[in-house]
Design goal:
The chain has 170 residues and is an all-alpha fold. It has one domain. It is globular, with a radius of gyration of 15 Å. The two termini are 13 Å apart.
């Protein structure tokens, strides 16, 4: 069974990730990420916004990013609840900054530009997912262990994300 990251590797090999990282919008997203990580309710709201936006885009690179994004959403939720803390702060900031950038309607290429508006979002997300792929794989292993032990239900409080993840696994 392929890992959530295997589908995003070819997307993440592009050189756009680093270019997007140099924009004012991404620097602002990094600054906001640090603040959001200290506020669990706002962090959870960000994940819900990102999940909603992910559900709305369904073509091109998004199909390949979707599984990895939902895993990332669960990682951030588990962190915000205090259930999962085995994640490096650096990688967590990268993940949250990418989500902030993704939900922002105006960034390097504004989302309202049809056909191109979400391209920079997809490139930054795929680059970020490649950078943190080992972290996401560790989280996935932890999540499987928690399910096997019956000691944690990372999705019980999030029926919307659970339904989306179940739909994707079919």
């Amino acid at each position: 069974m392929p890992t959530p990251m295997s589908d995003t590797e070819s997307l993440a090999d592009n050189k756009q990730g680093p270019r997007v990282k140099r924009t004012r919008a991404y620097r602002a997203a990094l600054a906001r990420a640090g603040k959001l990580l200290k506020n669990p309710s706002r962090l959870n709201r960000l994940v819900q916004e990102a999940a909603k936006k992910t559900e709305q885009v369904d073509s091109g690179p998004w199909g390949k990013l979707r599984d990895a994004l939902y895993t990332t959403f669960r990682l951030v939720k588990a962190f915000s609840r205090g259930q999962y803390r085995q994640v490096s702060w650096h990688n967590l900031v990268l993940i949250v900054a990418a989500l902030v950038y993704f939900v922002a309607p105006v960034d390097m290429i504004p989302d309202f530009i049809i056909g191109a508006g979400l391209l920079d979002d997809a490139m930054l997300l795929s680059w970020t997912l490649k950078q943190v792929s080992a972290e996401i794989e560790r989280f996935t292993a932890w999540e499987i262990g928690e399910s096997a032990n019956g000691s944690g239900d990372t999705e019980a409080d999030e029926p919307e994300l659970s339904q989306q993840a179940a739909r994707l696994s079919r």
